[in-house]
Every structure is written in structure tokens, then in C-alpha cells.
């Protein structure tokens, strides 16, 4: 079940994945937004470290700003 998978990195055909809750689930269970926010922050951390190591990546900064404004 997703409740046991979420928040832990997985790999599928060589691609790292972070399972998390579906947006519709969050509409029905708003208390779980904090868990999803934690998942998204971890994804951003890995993206910054591994994929976009240069701090000048506008797209990643934009995404981080948008996510921070939600939380």
C-alpha cells in the first residue's frame, strides 16, 4: 500500500522515484498534506544535489519557490 511506500525512495527501471499521495486523496484527507510536503522537499533536495548542482537553474528555483509558498 502507498501508506507504507510513501516517503521512501524506490527505483523503477533505473529511475529513482518518490511515492507520495495522489492529489485527490489530499482533498479528502488534508491532514496528510504535511507528509506530501516532506516528500516534495526530499525530491527537491535530491534534484539540487544530483541533477541541478548549479545554483543558477531558474526552473528548479521557480519550482522551489512555488512549493514553499504552498507549505
| Class based on secondary structure composition and strand pairing | mainly alpha
Radius of gyration equals 13 Å
Shape: flat
Segments where pLDDT lies below 50 for 5+ residues?
A: none
- Which range best describes the helical content: under 10%, 10-25%, 25-40%, 40-55%, 55-70% or over 70%? 55-70%
Count of discrete alpha- or pi-helical segments spanning 4 or more residues: 4
How many beta-strand segments?
2
Question: In percent, how much strand structure appears in the residues?
Answer: 5-15%
Distance between the termini: 25 Å
What does this structure look like?
The chain is mainly α and 71 residues long. It has 4 helices and 2 strands. It has helices at 2-5, 23-28, 33-51, 58-70, and strands at residues 10-12, 15-17. Strands 1-2 form a two-stranded antiparallel sheet. Strand 1 and strand 2 form a beta hairpin. The protein is flat and about 35 Å long. The model has no long low-confidence stretch (mean pLDDT 83).
SSE layout and pairing:
Layout: H1 2-5, E1 10-12, E2 15-17, H2 23-28, H3 33-51, H4 58-70
Features:
71 residues, mainly alpha, 59% helix, flat
How would you concisely characterize the structure shown here?
With 71 residues, the chain is mainly α. The protein is 59% helix and 8% strand.
Amino acid at each position: 500500500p502507498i501508506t507504507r511506500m510513501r516517503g521512501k525512495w524506490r527505483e523503477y527501471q533505473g529511475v529513482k522515484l518518490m511515492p507520495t499521495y495522489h492529489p485527490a486523496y489530499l482533498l479528502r484527507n488534508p491532514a496528510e498534506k504535511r507528509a506530501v510536503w516532506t516528500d516534495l522537499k526530499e525530491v527537491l533536495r535530491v534534484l539540487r544535489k544530483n541533477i541541478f548542482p548549479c545554483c543558477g537553474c531558474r526552473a528548479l528555483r521557480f519550482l522551489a519557490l512555488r512549493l514553499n509558498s504552498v507549505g
